[in-house]
Amino acid sequence: MVSSLEEVLMLQGVSRGTVSFCCLQTTPKLLYTVIALLNLSTVNLDLEKKLLVDTRFRVCAGANDDGVDEAEKEARGESTLPERFRYLTKEAPDPPVRWPFFVAAAFLLYAWRAVLFELRNWRKAAFSIVHFVGYLLKLVLALIFHFLGDPVTSLIRCIETALYSIRAFYSGIVAYAPVPELTAIIMLASAVLSIAEATVPNSINSQTYLLTISGLIGYAAVGGYISETFFWTLLVGMYGFSRFIKKRDNVSSALPAAAVLAAVGEPWVRVLVIASYLALAVSHHSKKTHSERKDEVVVVTDMKLPLPLLGVALAIGIRLAAKWAGYRHLTWKIV
């Protein structure tokens, strides 16, 4: 049995000294087990040879890739490890250091601990700087108000007064706008403007600014902001400016005054002004010759509506819309 075991071990490539030692130190039962394992390995010898060739090829390729020179191989000497296990002896690379930024930050904090301890009062220093800048800004603001305080305050008061005046004016229109009187104003003023435009074409577009000023004067007279004497003085001044400075005819010059008197005057003043202006227009038209009438034919393509009439129409619309909205609101509340 021992001789057969020696033959099997010699066939498997084990040296003779190792075989003799194994035979002397091994019990018979263990020897039968070793022989069975060696027979099993002999049956699969062809498959193991193929795997050995493949493993040697990979080991050689890995050795060539690692760049180990011949001198290092000779220094290492012949290894007794089988070729099929040599690829397992390759050194594994060291794992990379994770979170290198935090590692570096830890070293920096450790190195600069003295500086960080010295800067422990940085909050007080920052607050002191902020307070100092605030005091400087207060000083600059005080200097500005010392020299420009009164004009700025007056400007703010003027803006506030204007805003409150606009709000009160709008509230008055919404609550108390007299729709019948405003409708009569539009009709009478439109009648005067129609007479002037029929007699002297383009008489409205040529003096839109004067018509706007006359409308404001009429509103100021009705509201009691100016006296009646000053009102008549302004109307005469407007007529003189248009007649003697702008060199317009009598019909065009009297148009702003006639329009405002027909709009805001007493009933008898309205009738008198409309009749007088109509007579002036007829007289002016009758004095023209036939050739002058042909020459004065002007085609007006862009007719500008006077702003006072537009404002009156807008006031009527606002009042009617507010009244309708209030009625609908009350109806909803009742229902």
Structural topology:
Layout lengths: L1 H10 L4 H9 L3 H16 L1 H22 L3 H7 L23 H12 L1 H6 L3 H55 L2 H21 L8 H16 L4 H18 L4 H15 L2 H20 L3 H6 L11 H28 L1
InterPro entries: AtTam38 (IPR056894)
Pfam families: AtTam38
Keywords: Membrane, Transmembrane, Transmembrane helix
Provide an overview of this structure:
The protein is mainly alpha-helical. 78% of the residues lie in helices and 0% in strands. Helix 12 runs antiparallel to helix 13. The N terminus is likely disordered. Keywords: Membrane, Transmembrane, Transmembrane helix.
Quick structural summary:
The protein has 335 residues and is mainly α. It has helices at residues 2-11, 16-24, 28-43, 45-66, 70-76, 100-111, 113-118, 122-176, 179-199, 208-223, 228-245, 250-264, 267-286, 290-295, 307-334.
Which key phrases capture this entry?
disordered N terminus, 78% helix, 15 helices, mainly alpha, 335 residues
In total, the number of strands is 0
- Name the overall outline: elongated
The fraction of residues in strands falls at under 5%
Q: Specify the structural class.
A: mainly alpha
What is the percent of helical residues?
Answer: over 70%
What order do the SSEs take from the amino end to the carboxyl end, as H and E?
A: HHHHHHHHHHHHHHH
Count of structural domains: 3
Keywords: Membrane, Transmembrane, Transmembrane helix
InterPro entries: AtTam38 (IPR056894)
Transmembrane segments: 99-117, 129-148, 168-196, 208-235, 255-282
